[in-house]
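From the methods appendix. Each design record in this collection lists the discretized structure first, followed by the designed amino acid sequence. Records were kept in a plain field format so they could be parsed without special tools. The example shown here is representative of the layout used throughout.

RECORD:
C-ALPHA CELLS (153 positions):
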C-alpha cells in the first residue's frame, strides 16, 4: 500500500511539472484585453436617467470619453453640430472617463441624430447622439400670465 501511495504522489508531481512547463511555454495565462475606448454626450445622474447621448437644450452639455493615455493636444472631440471648449483630463467622479469638454450646439441645428467622435491614441471612436426639437422659448403675445389679473372676473 505504501509503494502505491508513493507512485501516486510521483505521478501527481510529474503532472504538475508538465502542466507548469506547458503554461511557461505558452507565455503564461492569457493577457487581459485592452480596455475599450468609449465616447458619449452627457451622463445619467442618480436623479435623472436617459441623458446619455441626448443633447439637453437650455442645460450644460458635456462630451466624455474613456481614453487611456488621454492628453491635451492629442485627444480631441469633434461633431458637425457641436463646438467644444474647456477640455479637462483626469478621472471623474460618477462616470468612467479620462477626458471631458463642454459641448455647445451650433446655432440653427435641426433636430436629429448626429455623430460625436473622439480622436484617441491615433484612432477615432464614435457615438451617436440625439438633438431634440426646440421647444417654444417665448410666451406668445397676449397670453394669460398667472398672477397678472388677466384671468380675474
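DESIGN:
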Amino acid at each position: 500500500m505504501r509503494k502505491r501511495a508513493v507512485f501516486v504522489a510521483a505521478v501527481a508531481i510529474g503532472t504538475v511539472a508538465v502542466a507548469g512547463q506547458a503554461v511557461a511555454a505558452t507565455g503564461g495565462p492569457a493577457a487581459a484585453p485592452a480596455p475599450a475606448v468609449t465616447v458619449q454626450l452627457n451622463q445619467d445622474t442618480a436623479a435623472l436617467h436617459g441623458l446619455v447621448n441626448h443633447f439637453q437644450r437650455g442645460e450644460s452639455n458635456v462630451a466624455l470619453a474613456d481614453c487611456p493615455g488621454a492628453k491635451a493636444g492629442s485627444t480631441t472631440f469633434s461633431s458637425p453640430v457641436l463646438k467644444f471648449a474647456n477640455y479637462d483630463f483626469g478621472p471623474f467622479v460618477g462616470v468612467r472617463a479620462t477626458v471631458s469638454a463642454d459641448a455647445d450646439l451650433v446655432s440653427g441645428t435641426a433636430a436629429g441624430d448626429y455623430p460625436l467622435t473622439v480622436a484617441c491614441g491615433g484612432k477615432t471612436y464614435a457615438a451617436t447622439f440625439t438633438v431634440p426639437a426646440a421647444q417654444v422659448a417665448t410666451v406668445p403675445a397676449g397670453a394669460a400670465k398667472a398672477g397678472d389679473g388677466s384671468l380675474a372676473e
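APPENDIX NOTE: Residues 2 and 97 are 62 Å apart (CA to CA).
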